[in-house]
Design brief:
By secondary structure, the chain is α/β, with parallel strands linked by helices. It is built from eight helices and six strands, in the order H-E-H-E-E-E-H-E-H-E-H-H-H-H. The chain starts with a helix and ends in a 7-residue tail after the last helix.
Length: 206
């Protein structure tokens, strides 16, 4: 029984969600590759759907021994990183009671909202998340994008936030090595800057 409990403690279920074009898939691969580099077992999958048209994207990453399925069961997510508030609410059932959630508060309404078919109030969603999630970190999306200088590297900044909150079994140095290997040289400095901004997220977290 003790061995089973230790095995459970060594596992990490991470779910990443957003809309197409926000870099959710790249973030999941950075996390997965960082785990593989440390010799950890990794399983994962992506639900992309109509991502290229602004649809939902959900990535599951499961790290640790004894995991046989790539999908995180309901109520077992240790960490959820959400690039958008409506998507955060959508995946809330996956979060464990003691799980942590990092949410970018910048709304990205669905494409159909331009036709008046779908609208939502970001403030109402944020209030709901605050009521439902014990360990919630809200990130000011506009400030973060302005400091990063490019919305495409916000995913790396959110990874830095997760590292600071001790949500993942990696050090910043582990992630720097992975970024250096995977990111083209011309974008390397931009991504490393974004990581550092995430590591100092309290400057602009809400």
């Amino acid at each position: 029984m003790i061995a089973y409990r230790k095995e459970r403690e060594d596992r990490k279920n991470c779910l990443i969600t957003g809309v197409g074009g926000q870099g959710t898939v790249l973030l999941s691969r950075l996390i997965g590759n960082a785990a593989l580099e440390q010799g950890l077992a990794v399983r994962g999958t992506e639900t992309i759907g109509m991502a290229q048209r602004g649809g939902s994207v959900v990535s599951h990453i499961r790290i640790g021994a004894g995991i046989h399925a790539p999908l995180i069961p309901l109520h077992q997510g240790d960490l959820i990183i959400a690039f958008e508030c409506a998507e955060a609410v959508r995946v809330l059932p996956f979060l464990a009671e003691e799980g942590q959630m990092i949410v970018l508060n910048r709304p990205v309404p669905p494409v159909i909202s331009a036709l008046g078919a779908y609208r939502y109030d970001p403030g109402t969603l944020m209030h709901y998340l605050k009521e439902q999630v014990q360990q919630l970190t809200l990130i000011d999306g506009e400030k973060l994008i302005n400091q990063c200088g490019n919305p495409r590297v916000v995913n790396v900044a959110l990874l830095g936030v997760a590292l600071t909150l001790k949500c993942l079994p990696f050090t910043p140095e582990d992630i720097i090595r992975i970024i250096t290997k995977q990111v083209p040289p011309r974008f390397l400095d931009l991504n490393l800057k974004a990581l550092q901004l995430g590591l100092h997220h309290l400057r602009w977290a809400r």
